[in-house]
Amino acid sequence: MRKRECMLVLFAMLFAGCSGDSARSGLTGYVEAEYIYISSLETGWITSSAVSEGDRVSAEQVLLSLDNERQAFDLAEATQRAAAAQAQWRDLQSGARPEELKRLDAQLAEAKTSLTLADIELRRLRDLLSKGATSEAVLDKASAEYSAAKARVDSATASIGVAKLAAREEALIAAKAAANAAEAVLAKAQWRFEQRSLVARQAGLVTAVYYRQGEQLPAGAPALALLPANGLKIRFFIPQSRVVEFAPGTVVSIHQDGNPEILSATVSYLAEQVEFTPPVIYSVANREKLVFMVEARLPPNSGLHAGQPVDVSLL
């Protein structure tokens, strides 16, 4: 009887050892997908949809378009305002217009002619005064007229100089700031107009379409879900005794049912906390109930599908 009990104990020990090796050789996990959800910052009616579930799209490909009449009006207004602000700034830089300069040149020529005549009259009266043919009062009047004519020439010359100058520095700074602000408003209007077409930021597979042509897309609501080429990962759990074996960067082998091909994945995440803590004090037996979640990134185009169960083991 004692011999039989000893054989049973030995068999149990062998079985436990085999089970432990089996448990260490492979783990069960499943495929997890990280989707990209395409949405719009503003609400709008979907005017066209270019993709359906199962379509593969490339980066920058247009997925759907929203109505853009209001954004087009805002863009046209911003364009005109920016052009007006730029024209105002250039006008202040260039000084007076050619027509104004021609008018000032004509005034200067007239003033110079008057000065010449006044000079001639002043010289004539001085000669007559020396001969006693005129009075001091007449000469004083001619001298005053000469001074006034000379002042008009100086004033016209100064006016032409001012007209050729640009506006004051403060006015130029204000005009330049207004032009820059108008350009910023224009860029914003252009950006809002372009946002009415939703594009794929990276290549991937369209897995779900939530809103279709003719429906109104709420602001921030996902219009469709996109699975990028590198959007699949394996999620599995390991006992606390094997944490040191699955550090980030570790390469593991992936086996799926019905497919003899062995894939490889790289551990990208190891949980910092356990998934289960026993409600009693720790013991050797209870420590085996502690598990940690591990995630391993799959290479692009692995052929696996979200939710698919797989076997994981170390290479």
Features of this protein?
HH_YbhG-like; 315 residues; UPF0194_transport; single chain; rod-shaped; six-stranded antiparallel barrel; 6 helices; HlyD family secretion protein; coiled coil; four-stranded antiparallel β-sheet; alpha+beta
Give the helices and strands, then pairings.
Blueprint lengths: L1 H24 L1 E7 L2 E4 L4 E6 L6 E2 L4 E5 L2 H26 L3 H33 L5 H29 L4 H26 L2 E3 L4 E6 L6 E2 L4 E7 L3 E8 L11 E6 L5 E9 L13 H4 L3 E7 L11 E6 L1
Antiparallel strand pairs: 1-10, 1-14, 2-9, 3-5, 3-8, 4-7, 5-6, 7-9, 10-13, 11-12, 11-14, 12-13
Helix pairs in contact: 2-5, 3-4
Organism: Zhongshania guokunii
Protein name: HlyD family secretion protein
Keywords: Coiled coil
Low-confidence stretches: 1-24
Secondary-structure-derived class: alpha+beta
What strand order characterises the main sheet?
1-10-13-12-11-14
Strand content: 15-25%
Instruction: Spell out the helices and strands N to C.
Output: HEEEEEHHHHEEEEEEEHEE
Question: Outline, from the CA principal axes?
Answer: rod-shaped
Subcellular location: Cell envelope
Keywords: Coiled coil
InterPro entries: HH_YbhG-like, UPF0194_transport
Main location: other
Can you describe what's shown?
This protein is α+β, with helices and mostly antiparallel strands and 315 residues long. 45% of the residues lie in helices and 25% in strands. The strands form three sheets. A six-stranded antiparallel β-barrel has the order 1-10-13-12-11-14. Strand 11 and strand 12 (262-270) form a beta hairpin. The protein is rod-shaped and about 135 Å long. The protein starts with a helix and ends with a strand.
